Amino acid sequence: MATITSLGAGTSLDLETILTSLQANNEVVLDQLSARQESYEVKVSSFSQLQSSVQSVLDAAKALAKVDTLNAVKSTVSGSAVTVTTVAGATPGQYSVTVNQVATAQRLQSASALDRTEKHGASATLEIELENGTKTTITTSDTSLDGIAKAINANDESGVNATIINDGQNGSYLMLTAKDTGQANTIKSINVTDNTELGALLNYTSADPTGGQLVQTQEALDAEVTINGIAVTSASNSITEAVDGVTFDISPDAEPNDVATVSITSDPQAIKDAVTKFVNAYNSLQTTLYNLTSFSVADETQNPLTGDSTARNIQTSLASALQVVSGEGALQTLNALGISTNPDKVAGVGGTLTVDSTKLTNALNSNPADVARVLAGPNGLAASITTATDAILGSSGSIKHRQDGLQETVDAMQKQYDNTESRMTAELDNMRARFVQLTVLVNQMNSTSSYLTQQFAALSKSTS
């Protein structure tokens, strides 16, 4: 039997066109299923976008209740004797700081050595003890000044830094400096064992700081200042415990009797900035909701979440969360602080917030406690937004629940698409096989018809 290279070949039947048309119709159906599935996938993605916007609102609301926001302070310093750093909650006030003494670190100097690399004995063990009780044992096989310096510096627990200073004339000196300032960090003793030669060079005791070859060249001193008439002592030049939340850093260039005046005051700008961030986050959420849910009457076009009840409920819930009443004080609402809903749409978006900066500043200046209650109190904005978003975000929130439902629909549509595609492919394959059989049959019939026609023609000629 001849091979069929084209359906309907040798017949008047256009079977290939019929199959092509059927396949095109099938693709239309599959495209419709795919488009519907894609629309649900876009909804899932849209809720992820919405979740991110809601989370930003929650984060901004929580920032309103942070100590760093509510109790922020700022400082000013007159004079160069000290600088000041503060943390939220620092005690406001005016402080006169007089520097009486700058903290210094103890420094010891060895006798001169002509060769810094010359060893003093085979090996040695050094025990370094500080006045604060810290003891460190260091063992080294290199007993030269270089070797001793390297061994000390390699030990982070010794509390001592070692350097070699060459005077350019008579030799080199080992310099030992306490890592930290103050009398508590003074080197109490250095004791070398198993090496008499090195011991003569390095043994030291604070009871007799100039009695050996290693002598004290700078005494360790505590910092001493007077703050508002009260004497304060510190091992370091950073005084951290004199005033709650305030660190006074004494300048290394300060001289005795240098005076600085420090002013610590509340910083309302931190609250203003936090309010601005919240308003921006809330307005951004409104823009997101508008872009996802709006419907254009003129163009008769809609967005992924147009008409979606979950999205609508989120918008309503958060708008309701703004209606806070602190229940105490002269100022109890957001509107009293200058935070209100914009009556007009902005670029088509309604429900946005606006801030009257003058009104907010006046509230912070005259009633800071009221402002704190409205923003961060038990009935305040941060608590209200947190309660509202608890039902929206998280593993049991409305967004997750809606996304799970949409994803189930997407999965079901994918299964429907796969089944439909498989069924259509099988039907086309079956029809193609039947068309092949039909083509063969028609060609056989045509061949038989041609043969019979020839035979009848021959028979007619023989009988005439």
Automatic annotation (TrEMBL):
Pfam hit, one: FliD_C
Every Flagellar hook-associated protein 2 N-terminal domain range: 12-106
Domain Flagellar hook-associated protein 2 C-terminal residues, every copy: 220-447
InterPro entries tied to this protein: FliD, FliD_C, FliD_N
Claim: Coiled coil is one of the keywords in the record: yes
Biological function: Required for morphogenesis and for the elongation of the flagellar filament by facilitating polymerization of the flagellin monomers at the tip of growing filament. Forms a capping structure, which prevents flagellin subunits (transported through the central channel of the flagellum) from leaking out without polymerization at the distal end.
Assembly and binders: Homopentamer.
Family per similarity comment: Belongs to the FliD family.
Chief location of this protein within or outside the cell: secreted
GO biological process terms on file: bacterial-type flagellum-dependent cell motility; cell adhesion
Subcellular location: Secreted; Bacterial flagellum
UniProt GO cellular component terms: bacterial-type flagellum filament cap; bacterial-type flagellum hook; extracellular region
Protein name (record): Flagellar hook-associated protein 2
Keywords noted in UniProt: Bacterial flagellum, Cell projection, Cilium, Coiled coil, Flagellum, Secreted
